[in-house]
Hints:
This protein has helices spanning 46-54, 78-83, 101-108; strands at 8-17, 20-30, 60-68, 71-72. By secondary structure, it is an alpha+beta fold. The chain has one domain (8-108): P-loop containing nucleotide triphosphate hydrolases (Rossmann fold). A four-stranded antiparallel sheet has the order 2-1-3-4, with helices on one face. Strand 1 and strand 2 form a beta hairpin. The radius of gyration is 16 Å and the shape is globular.
Amino acid sequence: xxxxxxxxxxxxxxxxxxxxxxxxxxxxxxxxxxxxxxxxxxxxxxxxxxxxxxxxxxxxxxxxxxxxxxxxxxxxxxxxxxxxxxxxxxxxxxxxxxxxxxxxxxxxx
Length: 109
């Protein structure tokens, strides 16, 4: 059994946008070295979950907590979370003329 602190732990998250509850009592624990895939039908809350972890301001956390390396990140702004390595990438990023993906990722790191 792994007694290490999970890298990411979602505890009983309830969340809404525009007074519509999207997530209800979501729990997830990701330990070092694990890979998880979030799957589900359209409208099941996958994007909402991702945006909440990244700190998107349009979403309201009604209950629960998000722990990153054992520390709550709920009070952190999206830019503070991004400095910790928590951010959303685009599935189909817009091409910037003269900037290759390789250069972009090197600079990002």
